[in-house]
Amino acid sequence: MRLPPARATTVLVILTSGVWLTTFLLKIQDLWAIKAGFIPARLHGWESGVPSLPFWITPLSATFAHGGLMHIAFNMVMLAFCGRYVEMIIGSRKFLWLYVIGAYSSAFFQYLFYPNSQDPMIGASGAISTLFGAYAVLFGREPQIFASRWFNQVVQILWLAAAWSILQILIGFSESPGLMLATAAHIGGFITGLILIRPMLHFHYYNKFKKY
Question: Which CATH number is 7-210 given?
Fold first, then answer.
């Protein structure tokens, strides 16, 4: 299967992978996680003792911080696959906006559930979950339950959100106690993609045809 070309997706994959490789080779992954990771407790004045990036940018900078090889590899495969198809539909600019909004919304959901956590949340999983939510709506089959298409779309969003949430919770329970999975961030990011993709799609094609 040949994937569609997507400049923004490719750039994100290269940049994110490049940052991970650099921190891996310099052996500063733990330090970078504290500097760039999203730490909820920082909003209340907690300091790690390590000079870090401004708190407001960390939901985005955290997407450029990853743990081991499997962490970065899985995220980049998901980004390369889902990202290309979403970008193909809504265009590069709106794709990047969706990615950034997903990064911030996933951090917001993580904060809601763990406001005092001093553990850095790292990885692009939250933003990628947003893309995955958008992909699920764009390429999923809309249920034919009601005569109104709007109601069918609401049912589709609710069903996908429930299924993804249950999956993430089960994965969270299966992890060992020493590991912290950003379940809330994944759920929040996915829901963001479900909600935003149709308005962005309509806006994209409205502007496109408005030119003609």
Answer: 1.20.1540.10
